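step 4 of 6: structure.
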Amino acid sequence: MPVYNAPVKDFKFVLNDLLGLDKMTNMPGFEDATPDMIDAILEEGGKLMSEVIQPLNQVGDKEGCTWKDGEVTTPTGFKEAYDEYRAAGWMGLDADPEYGGQGLPHVIGIAFAEMMSAANMAFGMYPGLTHGAYAAIHKHGTDEQKQTWLPKMVTGDWTGTMNLTEPHCGTDLGLMRTKAVPQDDGSYKITGTKIFISAGEHDMADNIVHLVLAKIPGGPEGIKGVSLFIVPKFLLDADGNPATRNGVECGSIEHKMGIHGNSTCVMNYEDATGWLLGEKHKGMRAMFTMMNAARLGVGIQGLSQAEVAYQNAVIYAKDRLQGRSISGVKEPDKPADPIIVHPDIRRNLLMIRAFTEGARALGLWAGLQVDMVEKHPDEEGRRAADEALSLLTPVIKAYFTDMGFELAATAMQCYGGHGYIHEWGMEQFVRDARITQIYEGANGIQALDLVGRKLPQNMGRNLRQFFHPVDAFIQENMMDQEQKEFVLPLAKAFAKLQQGTALLGEKGMKNPDEAGAASTEYLRMFGLVALGFMWAQMAKIAKEKLVEGADDPQFYETKLVTARFFFERMLPDVSSLLVKMSAGSKTMMELDAEAF
Amino acid sequence: MPVYNAPVKDFKFVLNDLLGLDKMTNMPGFEDATPDMIDAILEEGGKLMSEVIQPLNQVGDKEGCTWKDGEVTTPTGFKEAYDEYRAAGWMGLDADPEYGGQGLPHVIGIAFAEMMSAANMAFGMYPGLTHGAYAAIHKHGTDEQKQTWLPKMVTGDWTGTMNLTEPHCGTDLGLMRTKAVPQDDGSYKITGTKIFISAGEHDMADNIVHLVLAKIPGGPEGIKGVSLFIVPKFLLDADGNPATRNGVECGSIEHKMGIHGNSTCVMNYEDATGWLLGEKHKGMRAMFTMMNAARLGVGIQGLSQAEVAYQNAVIYAKDRLQGRSISGVKEPDKPADPIIVHPDIRRNLLMIRAFTEGARALGLWAGLQVDMVEKHPDEEGRRAADEALSLLTPVIKAYFTDMGFELAATAMQCYGGHGYIHEWGMEQFVRDARITQIYEGANGIQALDLVGRKLPQNMGRNLRQFFHPVDAFIQENMMDQEQKEFVLPLAKAFAKLQQGTALLGEKGMKNPDEAGAASTEYLRMFGLVALGFMWAQMAKIAKEKLVEGADDPQFYETKLVTARFFFERMLPDVSSLLVKMSAGSKTMMELDAEAF
């Protein structure tokens, strides 16, 4: 019953008006990303989502995947929809033309990923993980490995996975037990058990290319002895076609809170043949290529669940007649007013919208940085993009997914009792969104990554890559009366973020627990200020568009109102977050574990 | 796999040290509530919960209820557990001795309700709803009705329900269509469809006493024409035993996000025989007796899910070995440190605990007011209790349940990926908690009830019943250096709440949408300050106990640290909430519905 309509107009606003993609077609790798091409992708992609992928979202939730004798069957319709998606060439959208991709910018891939996730998050994970595995092989593989594995992954004929977690180790991969024993022919025999492997086994592709972390016996202890391996479900014959079953099997699938349409597998490796990807004992480095892209992708998943939940909550709020407006009857010819007349319903809807539109801007900005890392003509530009992206990745992952869950629940609330019933589809968004706070590094880990790694990294340059542009924008626009309503609160919030950063540097240096204790609140401040920066820029553009007399003034007027809502009703949290993080770690650390 | 242990020590601390129940045994109706009796109830009740009721929580979630031909079968073990609960006489704990109850104070009933809900929320709803129906008949029924229905409800042989919602009307009961046609013998024939009827049909009791809202044809329009009826599943024979099936049937049950062990029924009434309860067209008044008690009960459900989720998260956090403390290895003989060494894990746990212990205090305080309304020796005391309770009921309902959901999700987060898997039981707490924000009046409605009804009610006396004691406490303790760390932040937060209240009065008077726009943030401020008031009192007691050299100093020391955490890390939200609510309704109200 829920629907999804791709927010094409908003995508175009962010891509062209905010990020200036329409002016980048002279950049290497951006030649084909013309406004017409982007329109076509968003329109056609959006249609596929609304008509084919989204209608399977509830089916997937209800049926789930089924496991039998090591085989996994996906829900009714998934295979056919995947065939359609694959046949249209969507898998190769931003993949390297050398391996059959269309070579479009990653930023377009991010927009497409948002649409797919909003339509059907469980479904979107099959190609999503393939994309991650593709990226790791593309970056770290030998030419032969790339020729062997990538073309079929780019078509979507084969899918990919990431195998990190084991029953006793998730965050702490140094505890890993899976081992890889070198063979005379240069291959390895992989043995061990991996858990929580999304898309680990299914019936939609001819082969599954597992990327597996394992330890080569005799290597360094802990995380420094971990290597990454390519381990296909089927070994290939001389022509490169899947032929012999490898020593890997899906032992069972998990029964979980949501994303039922995606198989979450226990994978048993027993003398499975694999090939080293990248360098020996440098597996974490290669894995991080996947993980960073995946973390951005997971952030987008969080955003997507808020977006689709918002769209449906709006429809319901306009349709559901219940009670009368407290400021006087609005629709006297009906038995009651639609609930969208109530300020609290509107507050809920605007909270979601102010988040999704701000997050869409930040997410696409991050997508563009991924392109810049690869394609910026000068080294300084590539490095700057890399540093800014490194810094913002944990913020996007954790802030977007915390909000995605919270706001999907907010949208569900607009339905009253009906929101709690499966049939209406709203509670599924909440359950599906919940995993995004956990996988690819639980959000507490993201916060630690931000304060413990990303802030000090590159001698603080990461931070300056974000703080400088914000500061420059504030300085440039501070005196402009038209922009004051947005720039002033941004400047105040930014000052508090700087204060928080200084505090972290000072206290965290002396005692790392101080940084740990403040990390989650600090990350939330960071997310709010980053969205505030996006909103201030978008509000400025909207005002200019209205002065220019652009088409569709309502779009820009709504943008302005939503911007005001963000600054008035969401950004103020920065103040209390600073107070909270400033309180320090004492209350947290002084209790014995037994006192809890 | 999850466990539950009743927090008996904390119950006793709140009941005796904070609320002084041990000094009230000379009050009428409190004679039997001796410390020994309360100990026995908490210990024995807690044992029943841990050993019998809680082990069925996951069973109930997994199996759910099943519907066949109008009959509902509850999950395996529910009937037997209910028999045990009933046989031990728990149903009558705080019921009127005239109808077989034990006549204990309601405040004890609230403690018991928290334990039951924490152990198994879906199970606890069967007796919970019976309790509500009992209270409505007890207050509004004729002597004959009371003699007929109450004794069997007090034993638990019969259960009760509330029938309000219809497919097209939930919040707005004026739209109701169910009709009640008067018969010559003084009874009515009830016809209509009710939805979302919890425990509407099941296999655990000999009869089900439905309280049904319906309209008598020819009566006033809208909500003023609604009456309440007693409509049993089985009509009674001359001896008062269930005999003939009445014209009411369960048409189907809902498939929902959580509380699978409780049947959520569509109830079809077709010429069902019913009897008017209370006055004609005054059904809402009688229904509110149930609803107010039910709203307090739902608040306690929210608290209970946070409590049980906390207990399990603590066990996991002490047990799970993963990574090392960032301030240096804590358990060098193990492959990793338990995750409870990490400040962010501790922050999560303390957030839950600071809420549950504060909420427990406020919830039991509210339970005591229920007793005072009935039993306080002088009228002024009864009135004061009623006014304070009226004011705090929407706060407890909405704030406790919003936090219950949020914090159950926080506890789940401590489990990483395992939290998302059914088997571990953590995600069930989140799903079960989610309904508490919706039923008995969605939380947005609670916020409107607070600002639109409860604040102005009784010429503002409600508010003074809460503000005066807070103010008095602050004045009394402000100069005490020992108390300053708690009283000062309380005083600041209280001042902001007063500011918010003044603002509401001022702006809301001119434009009701202003009150509506601020209502949710205002309610949250209220909840925080109310918990702050409880925490400041508890901290004071804890300090005194430590000076006295009380037994178990660790209990009081932990109380103090948790109090500090609350004041440092949770109460500061009041500041940003005031800023947000002060922004007014403009951004919310100026958009056309079409712009959303």
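step 5 of 6: annotate
 - Chain A has a mean pLDDT of 96.
 - The radius of gyration of chain A is 24 Å.
step 6 of 6: archive
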